[in-house]
DNA sequence: CAAAAATCGTGAGTGATTTCACAAAGTCAG
DNA sequence: CTGACTTTGTGAAATCACTCACGATTTTTG
């Protein structure tokens, strides 16, 4: 618990990535893996991988590497892979639809259980097995999911955020360009597609490799 | 030129974000803005904003703040907003379609000019004004765009990447879960939607706010 | 079994980024 | 015009992240 608090954020962000690759190795029937091999697969320096793993104790064996099955079961526990986090998706536009069709449950502990939209034509049906409700019924139909994915037009972002927060959501994955305001008890991760593309273009022009 | 090379990467990543908010202010008719106001809007510490701006010289005035119009024209030049970067999109599935419908040209210097897909049913039409070609004709039809957005199934990612690289692409925005291998002259930015969601879930459970 | 090879875990160094905190310089009201 | 106020730009400190390099330990080979 107190131990976990000390794990650097940069490490925490890489854990799901490690988990997925270790799972792949397991499915391929590999018994052992070295930090060097893993490094080539996930494109993270091998010393960084060893350091990351070391925050959880000594998971490997010198001269041998890491036992895939052990590593997998360890990360499964650590990432709470056995316990599913239920997620609501707000905004069934192009991007929202993509998420609903995406099968998050592969290698994953998160599941979209309900979606909302403002357009009546979209309400009532379902996409990828997820029922679509009207945004007016947000409070009533969202149950107590703790995480929401926000894929609405930016103008609507803050208003819906306020309602989500009032309903007790504690994490928001925000795909709108708007920077939303939340109480300090709520965690927001921003993914701004247009910033990503622009920033890639900027790097290409100004940081020649 | 040499000056620009020294701008920290962390700063460079925030520039497109600054640009968009400054543009909003300009459209709202605001004449001046302080780092404190901007900080509240973009959710970046005001000292960080001042430091970021300072890499470009003294853009503000003490006791006054920053002149919105000046700032905007400065960032327009810096981010090459007048010069459009042409982009190809590979994989017109759910996510790819979302991109094509998304209007990137708002506040933006990037434009998707051509899309490719392996399914014949999708080829020939267009989405959001962008023509869809068959992946077999990639080399022939992509012209010399320098940036590609990869929204294909992970199994196809490396193969297509190799073809893109051979054709001279220098930047790839990779939305597949696969970690692709490229020569050191090519820049890749990864956006892994499932990692983002899992990592948010992990932070919620282990880093209480 | 002994020597060679592999590989982890980590101390220590380096580098990058953020934040504090304040002098300097300007604005603004009366 | 003066004094109170605002806000920048930046040195210096603090924090965070990454990488090197090597001792320790185990595996592997002959």
Automatic annotation (TrEMBL), chains A, B:
Annotated compartments: Cytoplasm
Keyword 4Fe-4S: no
Keyword terms: Cytoplasm, DNA-binding, NAD, Repressor, Transcription, Transcription regulation
The keyword Transcription appears for this protein: yes
GO cellular component entries: cytoplasm
Residues in the DNA-binding region annotation: 17-56
Any Pfam family the entry gives: CoA_binding
Molecular function terms, GO-annotated: DNA binding; DNA-binding transcription factor activity
GO BP, sorted A to Z: negative regulation of DNA-templated transcription; response to redox state
Annotated positions binding NAD(+): 91-96
Span of domain CoA-binding: 80-179
Similarity comment: family membership: Belongs to the transcriptional regulatory Rex family.
Summary of the function given for this chain in its UniProt record: Modulates transcription in response to changes in cellular NADH/NAD(+) redox state.
Quaternary structure and partners: Homodimer.
Alphabetical list of HAMAP family matching this protein: Rex
Name of the protein in its database record: Redox-sensing transcriptional repressor Rex
């Amino acid at each position: 618990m107190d131990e976990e608090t000390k794990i650097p954020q940069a490490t925490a962000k890489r854990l799901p990535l490690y988990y997925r690759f270790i799972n792949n190795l397991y499915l391929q029937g590999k018994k052992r893996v070295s930090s060097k091999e893993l490094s080539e697969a996930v494109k993270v320096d091998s010393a960084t991988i060893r350091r990351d793993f070391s925050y959880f104790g000594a998971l490997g064996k010198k001269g041998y590497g890491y036992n895939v099955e052990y590593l997998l079961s360890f990360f499964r526990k650590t990432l709470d892979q056995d316990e599913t986090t239920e997620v609501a998706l707000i905004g069934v536009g192009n991007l929202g639809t993509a998420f609903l069709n995406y099968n998050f449950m592969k290698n994953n502990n998160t599941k979209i259980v309900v979606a909302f939209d403002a357009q009546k034509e979209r309400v009532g049906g379902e996409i990828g097995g997820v029922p679509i409700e009207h945004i007016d019924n947000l409070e009533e139909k969202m149950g107590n999911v703790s995480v929401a994915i926000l894929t609405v037009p930016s103008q609507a972002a803050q208003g819906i955020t306020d309602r989500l927060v009032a309903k007790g959501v504690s994490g928001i994955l925000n795909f709108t360009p708007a920077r939303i305001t939340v109480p300090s008890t709520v965690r927001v991760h921003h993914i701004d597609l247009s910033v990503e593309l622009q920033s890639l273009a900027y790097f290409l022009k100004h940081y020649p490799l």
